[in-house]
Specification:
Strand order of the largest sheet of chain B: 2-1-3-4
Order of helices and strands of chain B: HEHHEEEH
Helix content of chain B: 25-40%
Structural class of chain A: alpha/beta
CATH topology of the largest domain in chain A: Rossmann fold
CATH superfamily of the largest domain in chain A: NADH-ubiquinone oxidoreductase 51kDa subunit
CATH architecture of the largest domain in chain A: 3-Layer(aba) Sandwich
CATH class of the largest domain in chain A: Alpha Beta
Radius of gyration of chain B: 16 Å
Radius of gyration of chain A: 27 Å
Number of strands of chain A: 19
Largest interface: A-B, 37 and 36 residues
Distance between the termini of chain A: 66 Å
Strand order of the largest sheet of chain A: 12-11-15-13-14
Number of helices of chain A: 24
Number of domains of chain B: 1
Structural class of chain B: alpha+beta
Largest sheet of chain A: 5 strands, mixed
Oligomer: heterodimer
């Protein structure tokens, strides 16, 4: 029996900031100081506060160490683990209050969160099935196959009000009912783990931190619709997730939780992995199914919907990772428990990957109906460097912007659609006054142009034409007619594209046009970029009053565009410098070098 | 896995082991583990508490943790028991055997072992 557990995050964020080394060093140091029988080191999934990685929590005290370095390990072991004295300089500052060290759940970052899908992330070792079982894992599957009929399972999911977490928000129970009603000798359950939005890592963290939750839910889904085979389609770029899924599947098979006659019943179910090569379009369900079948990942027209004619032409349900992560909890705790969280039409919680101009970058799970203000100002810790919040982008390349004027809108599926964005899979990128909204729209459109599969013309050609217009605008060649043309084109692409990729690709443009039209007009009419981002519309200048003539800027200019003038201003010792606009590359090297704030762009 | 009972058996076994990470236990047993405490033999005491609590199946209710020097080094190993709503009880000059007795009488049956407390120790 161990008296203390040291949990170290093994998610992608902390792994890249060096947590693997920490685990090795910690294990060695504990051994060295003779504590191997008393203290256990546990590698877990993501805690959510990725900005502060690598993260370590010591239980039973629940002490939260952040940004731990390998060389801090001996001190933590000899002071904290041996003598019980918390190493306060390494403790996350938010947990240090005047009354001493407080629990992590009291910090602003965690206080408003409610973890359902992420309940085991950062708590259990995802590579040990017993730890998952120890937190009621596979109890829901046991309950379903032993005590419930397939229809009862579907009814519970329907009553819970759970909607698909992959973006569209289709009611999960209804989808399962369609597949259950389809008559066929063979049916499939598919998990969409092809998370592709820039800046999104929700599904990745669930797979890395709690892979069994997904396996269990897929088996429950298989029981509900009468399927005996499942596929998880996961990106090959998620090596940790793939590795842990492989371990999890092997362990579940060994325990007989996957395979033939589960829990001694007639129900059999097994799961296979399919690795995606990273095409964004394969996150679209029909393209994903086509890819599993071994063909080039291209979407096919719907209907027929997958629930009727899906994988290999058989009835198939396809749900997103986070959707599955809720299933076992709903079966165990009941539909009413789940439906008690959230808003009228959006039940439960949603995981968001917070990124961009925000203090606490990381993963948060909030009840539906939480306002954007709470997410950004309280959980996220606000905008760094005293800048002003301008907009948040949700839904990645398929979504839109939520401007500051809508910061108090409760986040749920319908509210976000109503203000021209969408829930998406849960990427939430925060932007401040230094972000140019035209440039943001261009960034996402460049992404969809690259990722368009080319099967249908509106998406293949339309998005490229849109991008050309945006390039024209950001280079100062745009006209007011271009804005109208752009808007018209957006509507055509939206209505005529074959799949979700093309149908939603214009959203970033449409929503920025709606809320930040004045910025577009500034680019077109005044030929200015108000945020100072679009290079072609900027000139760099030196303020003669502030310049002291030190030549530091000249030394870093790669284009030799800075030269020394002749005039010495009164009170100065040296002549001020000037920038040759025709040579300037607008790289910004001079601005970051100048200590006197003498260089400005406008 | 042939039955739900088999699964539940694994869960119950594991539950005690992961409960430590919940941190919401009511009763806290704190063992002084500064240099003085360790020199006086606090580690076997600490381990005896950890094992005893686990054997009694109380890991979800009782947290065993260590702390630094309490300041009465001549009485080490010192153990303090915090029960919500009650005054803390300070045990001194503890041993592994005394620890077992404390679990049996104090933790399980609510009666502090008065003869081991600081009030009874010879000043």
């Amino acid at each position: 029996m161990f008296r203390s557990h040291v949990l170290i995050c093994g998610g992608t964020g902390c792994t890249s900031s060096g947590s693997k080394k920490l685990i090795e060093r910690m294990t060695a140091e504990i051994e060295k100081q003779g504590l191997a029988e008393e203290v256990k080191v546990v590698q877990t999934g993501c805690f959510g506060l990725c900005a502060l990685g690598p993260i370590m929590i010591v239980y039973p005290e629940g002490t939260f160490y952040s940004q731990v370095h390998e060389d801090d390990i001996p001190e933590i072991v000899s002071e904290h683990l041996l003598k019980g004295r918390v190493v306060s300089r390494l403790v996350y500052h938010e947990t240090v209050k005047s009354e001493g060290v407080v629990s992590l759940s009291e910090t602003n970052f965690y206080k408003k969160q409610h973890r359902v899908a992420l309940r085991n992330c950062g708590v259990i070792n995802p590579e040990v099935i017993d730890e998952y079982i120890g937190t009621d894992g596979y109890q829901a599957l046991g309950k379903a196959v032993n005590e419930m009929t397939p229809q009862q399972v579907i009814d519970v999911i329907k009553e819970s009000g759970l909607r698909g977490r992959g973006g569209g928000g289709f009611p999960t129970g209804t989808k399962w009912q369609f597949a259950a009603n389809s008559i066929s000798d063979k049916k499939y359950v598919v998990c969409n783990a092809d998370e592709g939005d820039p800046g999104a890592f929700m599904d990745r963290s669930v797979l890395e931190g709690d892979p069994h939750a997904v396996l269990e839910a897929m088996a429950i889904a298989g029981y509900a619709i009468g399927a005996d085979e499942g596929y998880i389609y996961v990106r090959a770029e998620y090596p940790i997730a793939v590795h842990r899924l492989q371990i999890a599947i092997a362990q579940a098979r060994e325990y007989g939780l996957l395979g033939k006659n589960i829990f001694g019943t007639d129900f059999s179910f097994d799961i296979q992995l399919r690795l995606g090569a990273g095409a964004f379009v394969c996150g679209e369900e029909t393209a994903l199914l086509t890819s599993i079948e071994g063909n080039r990942g291209e979407p096919r027209p719907r209907p027929p919907f997958p629930a009727v004619k899906g994988l290999f032409g058989k009835p198939t349900i396809i749900n997103n990772v986070e959707t599955y992560a809720n299933i076992a909890q709903i079966i165990l705790k009941g539909a009413a428990w789940f439906a008690s969280m959230g808003t009228e039409k959006s039940k439960g919680t949603k995981v968001f990957a917070l990124g961009g101009k925000i203090t606490n970058t990381g993963l948060v799970e909030i009840p539906m109906g939480t306002t954007l203000r709470e997410v950004i100002e309280e959980i996220g810790g606000g905008i760094p460097n005293g800048k002003k919040f301008k907009a948040a982008q949700t839904g990645g390349p398929s979504g839109g912007c939520i401007p500051a004027s809508h910061i108090d809108v409760p986040i749920d599926y319908d509210n976000l659609i109503a203000i021209g964005s969408m829930m998406g899979s849960g990427g939430l990128i925060v932007m401040d006054e230094d972000n140019c909204m035209v440039d943001i729209a261009k960034f996402f459109l460049e992404f969809t142009v690259d990722e368009s599969c080319g099967k249908c013309t509106p998406c293949r050609v339309g998005t490229v034409r849109m991008l050309e217009i945006l390039n024209k605008i950001t280079s100062g060649q745009g006209t007011l007619e271009d804005l109208d043309k752009l808007e018209q084109l957006c509507l055509y692409v939206k209505s005529a594209s074959l799949c979700g990729l093309g149908q939603t690709a214009p959203n970033p443009v449409l929503s920025t046009l709606k809320y930040f039209r004045d910025e577009y007009i500034a680019h077109v009419v005044d030929k200015k970029c108000p945020a100072g981002v679009c290079k072609n519309l900027l000139t760099y200048n030196i303020d003669p009053e502030k310049c002291i003539g030190c030549k530091m800027c000249q030394s870093v200019c790669p284009a030799e565009a800075i030269w020394v003038g002749n005039e010495v201003k009164p009170g100065k010792k040296k002549p001020y410098l000037m920038i040759d606009v025709s040579k300037c590359l607008k790289c910004g090297a001079c601005i970051s070098k100048c200590k006197f704030g003498a260089i400005y762009k406008k | 896995m042939k039955s739900l009972a088999e699964l539940t058996a694994i869960r119950d076994k594991m539950k005690a082991r992961v409960a430590i990470r919940e941190g919401g236990a009511d009763i806290r047993i704190v063992v002084g583990m500064a240099t003085c405490g360790i020199a006086a033999g606090a580690r076997p005491v600490l381990n005896a508490f950890v094992e005893g609590i686990a054997q009694a199946g109380l890991t979800e209710k009782v947290t065993v943790t260590q702390t630094g020097c309490i300041g009465i080094c001549q009485y080490e190993p010192v153990v303090e028991v915090f029960v919500p709503g009650q005054e803390k009880v300070t045990y001194v000059k503890m041993t592994a055997d005394k620890a077992k007795e404390v679990i049996e009488k104090h933790i399980l049956n609510g009666k502090p072992v008065v003869e081991y407390t600081i009030g009874k120790a010879k000043m």
